[in-house]
Amino acid sequence: MMKLKELAALVQGELIGDPEREITGIASLWKARAGEITFVAHKRYLKEVAQCQASAILVEEGIAWPPAGLEFMGGGFQEPALIRVKNPYLAFAQILELFYPPRTRPGFVSEQAFIGENAHLGPDVCIFPFVYVGEGAEVGEGTILYPFVFLGEGVKVGRHTRIYPQVAVYEGVEIGDRVIIHAGAVIGSDGFGFVRMEDGRQRKIPQIGRVIIEDEVEIGANVCIDRANLGETIVRRGVKFDNLAHVAHNVVIGENSLIVAQAGISGSCELGKNVILAGQAGLIDHIKVGDNAIALAQSGVTEDVPAGAFVSGSPAVPHAVWRRVQVSLPRLPELLKTVKRLEKKVEELEQGIKRGQ
Questions:
Q1: N or C: which end of the chain has fewer CB within 10 A?
Q2: CA–CA dist 56, 90 (Å, integer)
Q3: Residue 213: alpha-carbon gap to chain centroid
Q4: pLDDT value of residue 51
């Protein structure tokens, strides 16, 4: 339980209402009840506030209160207090973590785990049953390895990292501090490298590079990140992956980028900082994407994307162009009919001119 004045101080917000009002929990705008705090992430949801029973609401700075024409539902509920903040969604995350802090565990190493020779386990690590830690691997302080995690030879895992069940980390991979890897991810499997021989058979090209995952990366369930052919595949600090994404060999992903579900990045692509690849976006090999660029869902990126660009479609083009194309598509059948009529008229005119000659 927290007082509103304490929550306002935590999120550095402006409090409008009773500073002593007690808050017992946090909930969505539509499910919040008396004693709970909620948030409005966008102005379009303000109309829903009239039906909200929360005791307090996080809103963006500059929003007039109460909104014009708003009447609260009554029924014995208090009008909610307000905390104005720069980013309501961020404030919501801060308060959520306050009410539901991450679970802490005392360190332990299960007798049913396999720990290879010369492996080093830092203080307070949690190693669950059926974990495999290969020869010479290193696991940093406070890191948690859940059941059936596989760490190959020479893997290095930093401090306070969480690796969930069934994750496979191949030999030589380096993982930083405060990384989260969800179930089923595969880090460091061979890149897709083959060469066709004269008899038509595909010969495997040895993949002898490695993968580097920097600090504060989060990798969703069943993501696959391939080792480099030579050198490194690198995921820079703060990158976040949704589930089921694929990163090919020798890719470099810049800091704080977002890779959404089913996105695919082909070999040797380079992404700048703060790039967003939306769901099912795909890049062919050797593409360069500049800082702050966005590729919308199902974009097929076949050319380099400059910094700050906003592309969509397949092949991907500037989003404004793609929107005009999409608006035109339903008109194509009628346009084709019109063209055919015009062609017929032109043909008739040409025949008339010939007869007149």
A1: C
A2: 16
A3: 15
A4: 77
> Average pLDDT of 243-254?
99
Which pair of structure tokens corresponds to residue 332? 């194509």
* Helix (H) / strand (E) containing 6: helix 4-11
Contact 189, 210 (CB under 8 A): no
- Cα angle 12, 18, 24; round to 5: 75
Question: Is residue 146 a part of any domain in this protein?
Answer: yes
Same domain (yes/no): 20, 125: no
Whether residue 356 lies inside any domain: the answer is no
Same domain, 44 and 172: no
Residues 49 and 130 in one domain: no
Q: Considering 160, 249, 286, 319, which one is annotated as catalytic?
A: 249
For the question of residue 42 being annotated catalytic, the response is no
For residue 72, the model assigns a pLDDT of 54
Please, are residues 187 and 210 in contact by the beta-carbon 8 Å criterion? no
- State which residues form the domain around 234: 108-320
What is the 3-class SS of 249-276, one letter each residue? CCCEECCCCEECCCCEECCCCEECCCCE
- Residue 202 in any domain: the answer is yes
Which strands sit side by side in the sheet containing 210-213, from one edge to the other? 120-121, 138-139, 156-157, 174-175, 210-213, 232-235, 252-253, 270-271, 288-289
Phi, psi of 317 (to 5 degrees): -135, 170
- Triad 150, 153, 154: Cα angle to 5°: 115
pLDDT tens readout for residues 162-204 = 999 999 999 999 999 999 999 999 999 999 999 999 999 999 9
3-state secondary structure of 89: helix
Q: For residue 33, tell me if it sits in a domain.
A: yes
> What is the C-alpha to C-alpha distance for residues 293 and 23, in angstroms, rounded to an integer?
40
Structure tokens at 61: 């700075």
Q: What DSSP letter does each residue of 266-303 carry, written as one string?
A: -TT-EE-TT-EE-TT-EE-TT-EE-TT-EE-TT-EE-S
Q: What is the largest CA-CA distance in the chain?
A: 103
